[in-house]
Amino acid sequence: MRALILAAGEGSRMRPHFSGPKPLIKLLGIPLIERNILSLRQCGIKDFFIVTGCYKKEIQDCLGNGERFNVNITYLDNPDWELGNGVSAYTFNRTYKENEKYIMMMADHIFNPDVFKSFVEQSNNITDEEILLAADKRLEKVWDLDESTKIKSQGDRAIKLGKELTDYDAVDSGLFLCTGALLNALKEAISNKQYGLTDAVNILASKGKVKLCFIEKDWVDVDDLESYVQAEKILLKSLIPAKDGAISKHINRKFSIPITKILSKTSITPNQITFLSFILAIISAFIFAFGNPIIAGLLAQLCSIMDGVDGEIARLKFLKTDYGGLFDAILDRYADFFIVIGMSYSLLMKTDSLPAFIICATVLTGIPMSMLIKEKYHAITGRAFVPEECDGIFRYLPANRDGRLFIIMLGGFLNLIPAALILLAVITHLQALARLVKLRKMI
Question: Hey, what CATH topology would domain 239-439 get?
Answer without folding.
Answer: Four Helix Bundle (Hemerythrin (Met), subunit A) (1.20.120)
